[in-house]
Design goal:
- The protein has 20 helices and 35 strands.
- The strands form twelve sheets. Strands 1-10-11-12-13-23-20-19-17 form a nine-stranded antiparallel β-sheet. A five-stranded antiparallel β-sheet has the order 9-14-22-21-18, with no helix packed on it. Strands 2-3-4 form a three-stranded antiparallel β-sheet, covered by helices on one side.
- By secondary structure, it is an alpha+beta fold.
- Helices cover 30% and strands 21% of the residues.
- It has a domain at 5-66 and 110-283: putative glycoside hydrolase family protein from bacillus halodurans (Beta-galactosidase, Chain A, domain 5), CATH 2.70.98.
- The chain is globular, with a radius of gyration of 26 Å.
């Protein structure tokens, strides 16, 4: 029976009847995002930012990168740390000692920045939170529109907010008697860029410039503004009706002064010069004379876009389920789809906090790229996986340079980087390996869905250069191939000098060596990696369970080894390792659940454990693991996976993406077992969901 998608979506619309500073709502289009408070604007930016584990109210675009002034020789001047690699010295940027300022300067550049704060104010002052009373706020997921209503001194203010589906623009319609009475205005304040979570610094007005294209003190919309933050240039176009505008360039402030009870306006942002993007040939921009859509035209486009989006791709509905867990699992699933749709579908990988705010300066972590994008392949949104692969093409020269600088062949993909693909110095990031096979896995997911010969040629270089580094990195010890040291596994609790054969990385390398050979065979070329897959080490076992790595016999008995990610489970869950013993894996899952410090799990650990349980036929356990009561497995009213206790990381999109991957796997099954793989009590209606590996 065909699913009534609209009905399923609408029963999960976030709807607030009171103040909720811990879960603000956002609108966006995949490349641009605007996060609002209960006014539908960003009026109480400071108050929301003051909350524990705060969500900043940001306006962000994927092209919005800024760098503080720095020396062009900074990276060349960075002192590297030597690591002994089987008798050869390899250098990594891991130690800031004695070069703290230089180390930090490279880490924080480039960073994402807040494009502009849009707020309500009175003619005399900023509004106080105490004088405003939230009445209702509804995010219509099917339409992509946020409806807000609140009171100021018993007078109602209504706001509609949405993002244009094709442009980096946010639209507003505001209705209130206070507007016509000149008791309420709208301001747009432009900050300096910041590497901090809020991505904004409003305290250094002398460090940036705001310039009206055609300087007049008061001007009817549209208004054209040019912004200059060091070498980053962008323009802002404000269009609409029902108001006049006034600008204070020195204070970086534009004021909309209403002359009507209803005003409609849009704020459109477009890059003029973003250095880190020009380095890799990513072009953004628009026609100089492009006119903004009217509010009604843009609203129609927004509604049509979201109706088309929800009507396409895969879909899962748990209607009719008697299991009490189904409703919450469906809510998390629907809201996760929305959040990823509004901020993780650009031309470069998203940060772990997407376009909501800065985490790690807005830089992205390529080991998380799998969690951000792999689920798209199962939900019939393969174009997003192709976009993910395009990024690896762009940074292939940088990845080959990283490998060559360390004496390796092929391309070594960075872990933490800005769009240029250059590694960010870190005591951990530069030593991680599990991001390395991701491009091979992405390419294989594309091939499985669309067996088109052009893809074999298109992605060949990415696959082979990736595999060549992997081949160059492993070591023959006289009887077997070993992985590491030096390296740090996905479970970032280990001394890189002794990590040997971490099971997830080991089996991910093995699986992707096999895929690379299969790719060559499809192209009619000679296979290269069969001997390695046959002679690669096996995952280590002690007392009937898998260890974190071969040199960690105390995995389950000594801290800190039973904290963070239980990544040994991923080799038979995320992967379908032919070397994994089901009996040992089941015992390992039980051991993790018995002894692991569950407060230290991250959002993607729960999907990993659920996928492992699913492959083991433990379907009820899989659902329990997806919904486990754990601090970092909270899904707020806005759908965000809350990272409780980590103020720098208030939300965690890899958790949302991992959830979607696990649910799709359970709905459609995998290569050796057809879905649905849910326990009794679940009614699973699925459309357009493909099996996993």
């Amino acid at each position: 029976m065909k699913i009534n998608r609209k009905a399923v979506i609408e029963r999960h619309n976030p709807y607030y009847k009171k103040l909720n500073k811990n879960a603000p709502l956002s609108v966006g289009n995949g490349k641009f995002c605007f996060t609002a408070d209960f006014t539908g604007l960003q009026t109480f930016f400071d108050e929301y930012a003051a909350e524990s584990d705060a969500f900043p109210l940001c306006t962000m675009a994927e092209w919005g990168w800024h760098s503080y002034p720095h020396n062009k020789d900074d990276e060349a001047n960075l002192r590297l740390t030597p690591f002994n690699t089987y008798g050869r010295t390899v250098f990594y940027a891991t130690d800031s000692t004695g070069q703290e300022e230089l180390f930090k300067r490279i880490r924080v550049n480039a960073h994402k920045f807040h494009l502009g704060k849009i707020s309500f104010e009175t003619p005399e002052r900023a509004l106080s939170l105490n004088e405003c009373k939230p009445e209702s706020q509804l995010l219509s997921l099917w339409e992509g529109i946020l409806f807000s209503e609140f009171l100021i001194s018993e007078e109602t203010v209504k706001t509609e907010t949405f993002a244009h589906p094709q442009e980096d623009a946010v639209y507003f319609r505001i209705t209130s008697a206070l507007l016509k009475e000149n008791k309420l205005r709208v301001t747009i304040r432009f900050p300096y860029g910041s590497h901090k979570k809020s991505a904004a610094d409003f305290s250094v007005s002398h460090l940036h410039n705001t310039r009206l294209y055609e300087p007049n003190e008061i001007k009817q919309a549209p208004v054209y503004i040019e912004r200059n933050l060091d070498n980053t240039l962008y323009k802002v176009i404000i269009s609409g009706n029902g108001y006049t505008t006034q600008i204070n360039e020195r204070e970086h402030l534009l004021t909309l002064i209403p002359d009507s009870q209803t005003i409609e306006f849009s704020v459109r942002f477009a890059p003029l010069n973003v250095p880190v993007l020009s380095q890799i040939g990513v072009a953004y921009g628009e026609s100089e004379n492009k006119q903004s859509d009217s509010f009604d035209d843009a609203k129609d486009k927004c509604r049509n876009y979201w109706a088309d989006y929800w009507s396409s791709g895969g879909f899962i509905d748990f209607s009719g389920s008697s299991d009490s867990r189904a409703a919450e699992l469906e809510r998390r699933m629907i809201l996760s789809q929305y959040l990823i749709a509004i901020q993780s579908r650009g031309n470069i990988p998203p940060a772990e906090t997407g376009l909501t705010c800065n985490s790690w300066y807005g830089k992205f972590h390529l080991e998380m790229h799998f969690w951000h994008h792999a689920h798209f392949a199962l939900w019939s949104r393969m174009e997003e996986v192709k976009k993910a692969l395009e990024y690896y093409k762009r940074i292939l020269p940088a990845a080959k340079e990283i490998a060559a600088s360390q004496g390796y062949k092929g391309a070594r993909w960075p872990k933490m980087c800005d769009p240029t693909g250059k590694n960010t110095p870190s005591s951990i990031a530069v030593l991680l390996l599990w991001q390395q096979p991701h491009p091979i896995m992405f390419a294989e997911l594309v091939w499985r869905a669309e067996k088109n010969e052009k893809y074999l040629h298109e992605y060949r270089d990415i696959i082979i250069e990736t595999a060549e580094f992997m081949k160059s990195f492993i070591h023959w010890d006289g009887s077997r191939y070993v992985l590491g040291p030096p390296c740090i596994p996905a479970q970032e609790r280990h001394d890189p000098n002794i990590v040997l054969n971490a099971p997830y990385e080991l089996e991910y390398f093995r699986a992707c060596f096999k895929i690379a050979d299969e790719w060559l065979k499809r192209l009619g070329e000679k296979e290269r990696y069969g001997e390695i897959t046959d002679k690669l080490s096996l995952p280590s076992v002690k007392d009937g369970v898998y260890l974190a790595h071969e040199n960690c016999p105390d995995t389950f008995t000594k801290l800190p080894f039973y904290t963070d990610h239980p990544s040994m489970l991923a080799m038979y869950g995320v992967l379908n390792s032919e070397k994994a013993d089901r009996r040992i894996m089941s015992a390992t899952l039980d051991k993790v659940l018995e002894v692991w410090d569950k407060k230290t799990f991250y959002g993607w650990d729960f999907p990993v454990m659920a996928m492992t349980a699913c492959r083991l036929g433990r379907y009820s356990d899989a659902v329990d693991l997806l919904l486990m009561d754990s601090p970092k497995n909270t899904y707020l009213e806005n759908g965000h996976n809350r990272m409780t206790g980590d103020d720098a990381l208030p939300l965690y999109l890899p958790g949302n993406g991992g959830l979607l991957l696990a649910i799709a796997m359970m709905a459609a099954g995998f290569d050796s077992r057809k879905g649905p793989l849910f326990p009794n009590g679940f009614t699973v209606n699925a459309e357009g969901i493909d099996p996993y590996i």
